[in-house]
Design goal:
By secondary structure, the protein is of the alpha/beta class. The protein has helices at residues 25-31, 60-68, 89-96, 111-119, 137-142, 165-174, 210-240; strands spanning 3-5, 10-13, 16-19, 37-39, 46-47, 49-55, 75-82, 100-102, 125-128, 147-151, 179-186, 196-203. A hairpin with a 2-residue loop joins strand 2 and strand 3 (16-19). It is globular. The relative contact order is 0.12.
């Protein structure tokens, strides 16, 4: 079997080898397009993680995450999955050059079919970013600890089935809340019920509207969600290397 030994400052990306060494002819002939058994030395040698994003709507969070990880040596968005064939996130995926697939909402009741689609792309980590379908138990179990969601309120308040997007913001404003925010949490078999990873808050002013609150929530999402994903993947990587 062909094998390459690289120095410690290397990264393996889906079987393609990129190293901070001179690309002598052996690399040109085999390293970039061959799938070898690769032996890395040192703590900086790592395999880039693949992120799959599940989204149902416009996909602004999906694009923000993909852009954040575009030049990252840690992870890359390798797949976008939608349950809505008309979702604008699919156009964002096309522009970003990220593979995208549609699994219609009725199909999400069939865990085996969903797993077949996901496994075909072999992601390491799954991110729900405005995804409305309930994730089947088979997917939760297969990615336990490696699947996260973002919710546009401070859970456990304003969570559960049907509580998403403008529905949440209208409810928060109507209740006269003085604070809202975002919750990033692990995903389990229930809507918005997994263990909380992080929460970030914003003020709800007396003259707040659902639209102005949505703008505040989006700013929190764009600032914090990619960083939390990165932190969680780093934790998993450290655990794998122990």
């Amino acid at each position: 079997m062909f094998s390459l030994i690289l120095d410690q400052d290397c990264t393996v990306i889906q079987g393609r080898i990129f190293a901070k060494v001179t690309l002598f002819p052996l690399f040109l002939a085999y390293g970039l397009f061959f799938y070898p058994q690769t032996l890395c030395r040192g703590p900086n040698c790592r395999i880039m993680k693949k992120i799959a994003i599940l989204a149902s709507g416009g996909g602004s969070n999906a694009e923000n995450i993909a852009t954040y990880f575009h030049a990252s040596p840690l992870a890359r968005v390798s797949l976008i999955v939608s349950d809505n064939s008309r979702a604008y996130v699919l156009e964002r995926a096309r522009r970003l050059g990220v593979p995208a697939v549609v699994v219609p909402r009725p199909a999400w009741r069939d865990g085996a079919a969903v797993m077949q689609t996901i496994n075909a792309h072999a992601p390491d980590y799954i991110v729900l970013a405005g995804f409305l379908s309930l994730v089947p138990p088979e997917l939760v179990q297969a990615f336990r600890g490696r699947i996260v969601n973002i919710h546009p309120a401070l859970l456990p308040a304003y969570g559960g089935k049907g509580m998403y997007g403008e529905n949440v913001h209208r409810a928060v404003v109507a209740a006269g809340e003085r604070q809202s925010g975002i919750t990033i949490h692990h995903v389990n078999e229930q809507y918005d019920d997994g263990a909380v990873i992080a929460q970030y808050t914003c003020e709800v002013s007396p003259n707040e509207t659902p639209e102005t609150l949505a703008d505040k929530i989006h700013r929190l999402e764009y600032e914090h969600f990619p960083k939390i994903i990165e932190s969680e993947i780093r934790k998993l990587t450290r655990d794998e290397n122990k």
